[in-house]
Amino acid sequence: MNTDRSAALFERARRVTPGGVHSPVRAFRGVGGIPRFIREASGSRLIDVDGNSYIDFCMSWGPLIFGHQDPDVRAAVEAALSRGWSYGAAEAGSLELAEWICRRIPWVEQIRFVNSGTEAVMSALRLARAATGRARILKFHGCYHGHVDAMLVKAGSGLAEAASPDSAGVNAETAANTLVAPLDDLAALREVFARSGRSLAAVIIEPLPANYGLLPQRPEFLQEMMQLAHTHGALVIFDEVISGFRVALGGMAERLGVKPDLVTYGKVIGGGFPVGAFGGRRDLMEQIAPVGPVYQAGTLSANPVAMAAGLATLTKLETHSPYALLERRGAELADALGSAIARAGADLRLQRDGSLFWLVASKASTPGALVRRVEAIPRAQRERFAALFHALLERGIYLAPSGYEVGFLSTAHSAADLDQFVTAFEAALGARSAA
Ligand code: PMP
């Protein structure tokens, strides 16, 4: 596979941009090698600047649930564009999208649009602190909530001790107001609440953690977490940036039959354009400026082109309801990859939930046991995934370039695309065991 042009662009990019990229994982550090510079994309396909074609299972990290350049989203975007692309004033596109969401998702009584998931989380945390008059936030090890200072933390040495910064530039004082608990550990959670529950403004969680691999949580864990939060006067924030509109229209909250106090969205809600949102209980949302004292704003917030892409995506999700199809495709893919893994006797497993999947270098000797927490991810994951990633890339399969990121299916992935993935996967396993 010729990658000369990507290599030349990468070389140039590194001179003017840290690591040559505008978001770190794109640099392929987790897998090594030259990041592919993408020239164009359509349906399930990416084409790079050297003319190589790939079936894309990264899908812009989740927004493109209908694939690249979906014709309905494109038509809505073009119509919006023909009227202008930013007004910095009240307009009806964001109203339509807000009404659409509030009508269908009962726990979202009001919503505000921002430009990214990070912004949505940042604003929801500020609101939670204001509403409760408390400073501390509880998060879970293995959940990602964007690059908000308070969330760029790692667990301290003891259980629920104040976290320490996980990035240079995050103050210890900021990190000290974040507590970190392990996923899938009710005993630890109860202890955190017993010790610190009354000082918590909010608990934030990805109800389907999908940023450290895919770490499905037991419903009992999520339900007790909500109960503990509410008994201790803390708010529950569901970060549904990935799961919102993807696992169901109402995301994981719908699936679990629960009502978080606040919810954050991103990705699918903008149909591939920069959109995030936070919403929830009216009494909380009305504390946001200009009605209430919690300041929050954005020059390009609710950009009309992005709003049109979002509305086209969400209305199409409702009219086409692709969830059963995505589940079926996901199940077929999981079956086929699972058989290939068994035939090759590889220490690998596919964890999947609907259209999200993750290949984990888990021992075949523990079949059936889901990896639900970070500590259970085998040490070999990074290295094993890197080898597999390149063997697949060579064969025209583009996965997210890190062993800790999930794969995304879209409705644009045909049965033939999945067959091609399986064939490449079998060859990749063979090549690896022969190596
Ligand atoms: N929360 C979750 C659950 C996410 O997956 C992400 C991004 N992957 C974010 C927040 C941050 O979103 P953004 O990258 O749009 O800032």
What keyword list fits this structure?
435 residues, alpha/beta, Aspartate Aminotransferase, domain 1, Aspartate Aminotransferase, domain 2, 7-stranded mixed sheet, 4-stranded mixed sheet, 13 helices, 38% helix, 15% strand, globular, binds 4'-deoxy-4'-aminopyridoxal-5'-phosphate
CATH superfamily of the largest domain, by name, is Type I PLP-dependent aspartate aminotransferase-like (Major domain)
- The SSE order reads HEEEHHEHEEEHEHEHEHEEHHHEEHEEH
Rounded average pLDDT: 96
- Indicate the CATH architecture of the largest domain: 3-Layer(aba) Sandwich
| Through-space gap between termini | 19 Å
Query: What is the C-alpha radius of gyration, as a whole number of Å?
Result: 22 Å
- Which ligands are bound? 4'-deoxy-4'-aminopyridoxal-5'-phosphate
Query: Which class of the largest domain in CATH terms?
Result: Alpha Beta
Low-pLDDT residue spans: none
Which percent range describes the beta-strand content? Answer: 15-25%
Query: What class would the helix/strand composition place it in?
Result: alpha/beta
**How many helical elements?**
13
